[in-house]
Amino acid sequence: MKVRTDWSLGEVEALFALPFMDLLYEAQTVHRHFQIANSVQVSTLLSIKTGACPEDCAYCPQSVRYDTGLETEELMELEDVMRRASAAQQAGATRFCMGAAYRSPKPKDLRKVIAMIRGVKALGLETCATLGMVSPQQAHELKAAGLDYYNHNLDTSPQYYDQIIGTRTYQDRLDTLQAVREAGMNVCCGGIVGMGETPADRAGLLHVLATLPEHPQSVPVNQLVRVAGTPLADAAPLDPFDFVRTVAVARILMPRAHVRLSAGRGEMSDELQALCFLAGANSIFYGEKLLTTGNPDTLHDRRLFERLQIRAEAPPGAAAGPTRMAHAATA
Ligand code: SAM
Ligand code: DTB
Ligand code: SF4
Predict the structure, then answer these.
(1) Which helix (H) or strand (E) holds 218?
(2) What are phi and psi of 284, to 5 degrees?
(3) Is 60 known to be catalytic?
(4) Quick one: which ligand is closest to 153's CA?
């Protein structure tokens, strides 16, 4: 088994076309070769700047163009972010991801975010940020501040992209990913399923991700959270097995990546989540809120890990051994 970046679209489509059980068997086989079985990485999200975003992403409650009733919030103060990061760490998260509803960060905002990154990093957490488009210069500044991961999603296939976003191009996104990669940061890049795309679009998205010059280190697979007021509020629900298929194909194509079961867990049964773990998902967002929408309650997640005998992945550099997730009421 080797890691490839030369997948053809036909090969990706053929994986999607496999009988469900054959696909899961192959995904779990790849998983056990490249990843630690029964271990799931735990990240916590915080929206450090909420709403009033000038972009028009059709799925997003934070776009200024849609009336979703969301309360907008200016960039948070450093001390508040630090309090939330400490709470997330106490609760067992090993990575803290700060999200801001920007098209791209302005210099004065970037300076403040950089102070947050330094602070969170000093706690011993892995740091992640998602701030929209960044230039090569900004990517270098973020790297110098100690940012471990930058999240920037492609969201869907190149073909379907225009139906979802009009204010920035696919190439803009690829340029940001290149800037992040060349600055030496880990890339966190995935997409959303359940936006009315076809199976060919899901294959198209994973094909682009798996043929980047280097695979993203993290691949979030989000299920659309349908938010009232957004253009996708009434999108037809996805067949849950198609969600699982997407996770499984991501695992097979990008064997070393952490595949994250991201948005949408709140609407998934425990059994469906277990199938996603079997398909190769090995990261989740833990904490009762994503950015603006809900996530499963932490007690429920801890119980789920116990019931499935899943361990929370130890932070990098920590002594080997099982880690436990604690109560995250304040995270
Ligand atoms: N503004 C920045 C950007 O777009 O890159 C960072 C924040 S943005 C909210 C991060 C990601 O969240 C988006 O790329 C999208 O994949 C995901 N997302 C946003 N709204 C979502 C929804 N309703 N359901 C699922 N995923 C969503
Ligand atoms: C990602 O792929 N999913 C997260 C994270 N990256 C930033 C965001 C999910 C947002 C879901 C909608 C919301 O809570 O606003
Ligand atoms: Fe803005 Fe990001 Fe939401 Fe798009 S996904 S509207 S860029 S916050």
Answers:
(1) strand 218-223
(2) -140, 165
(3) yes
(4) 1
